[in-house]
Write a structure and sequence with these properties.
Length: about 270
């Protein structure tokens, strides 16, 4: 098998892409990078390490790869493998981005897994990771995503969270606050792949939008969909709640691409 490096067009500055799904490109940690390339092979594939990537056709022999960048990604050159007639390597440049800090005072000991809930928490970590790795070969959504609910944005994506002065995990979604029972809708069409009541996230719904693009909706008070159900964009799936570890009624909305959390606002026509 021949391996060679090729140069492809890479857009580094934020810009709109017009294809099956629309997104803003922002090649920073928690953002989305993109590559366009030519291939005569039907259904070429692309990988970031061993993880398959979202790929869509732009026209005859023209394809586009979307790469979700982990929040912990360090700036610099990252290698992407394109599988078509031959394996080819292309490189993307990740730029630096610093996220703000957020501080909380709580009586709950963050990260404590020594109590009676420890087994549940560890099992749910496995379930969450398995779900996040879902990859279906066909795209299940089109166009922009839509905001899943109305309300006030109370916490943005990527902030570094500190609990009682100790650093916790960064925030991997958007928090939208509203009154208990406010409808929550699917941000794009897709298939429900998980409905589960998590210890921390509370009642949660995961939707598969195809090719490793997923969304999740957490802290719900009610869930009115079931696993395996197909949803259209903006179809109601539940109600805002405060289940799990929550400080008040709100929706925690996350989007995942190639197994990593990305800023959901990059898939909206207008930021919240």
């Amino acid at each position: 098998m021949i391996k060679k490096t090729v140069s492809c067009f890479l857009l580094l500055l934020p810009s709109l892409l017009w294809a099956n799904i629309y997104t803003t490109v922002n090649s920073t940690p928690g953002g989305i990078a993109q590559i366009t390339f030519e291939s005569r092979q039907i259904n070429p594939e692309a990988f970031y390490g061993s993880v398959p990537l979202y790929i869509q056709s732009l026209g005859e022999n023209q394809y586009q790869v979307l790469i979700g960048l982990p929040l912990m990604t360090k700036p610099g050159s990252k290698r992407i493998t394109l599988h078509s007639t031959n394996d080819r390597y292309v490189f993307i440049e990740v730029e630096n981005l610093s996220y703000p800090d957020e501080y909380f005072e709580t009586t709950v000991k963050v990260g404590n897994t020594q109590d009676s809930s420890s087994l549940r928490i560890e099992n749910e970590k496995v379930l969450f990771t398995k779900t996040r790795k879902t990859f279906s070969t066909q795209p299940l959504s089109k166009g922009y995503f839509v905001s899943p609910t109305n309300g006030r944005l109370t916490s943005v994506f990527g902030v570094n969270r500190y609990y009682n002065g100790e650093k916790g995990l960064p925030h991997i979604g958007l928090d939208i606050a509203n009154t208990l029972g406010t409808p929550v809708n699917a941000s794009a069409s897709g298939r429900v792949i998980l409905v589960h009541d998590f210890y921390y996230l509370g009642k949660t719904v995961f939707i598969d939008h195809g090719q490793g693009l997923l969304s999740s909706y957490s802290h719900l008070s009610e869930v009115n969909v079931i696993e395996g159900q197909t949803l259209r964009k903006a179809q109601e799936l539940g109600k805002i709640g405060t289940t799990g570890r929550s400080t008040g009624p709100h929706l925690h909305w996350s989007v995942f691409m190639n197994q990593v959390a990305i800023n959901p606002e990059l898939l909206l026509k207008k930021p919240l």
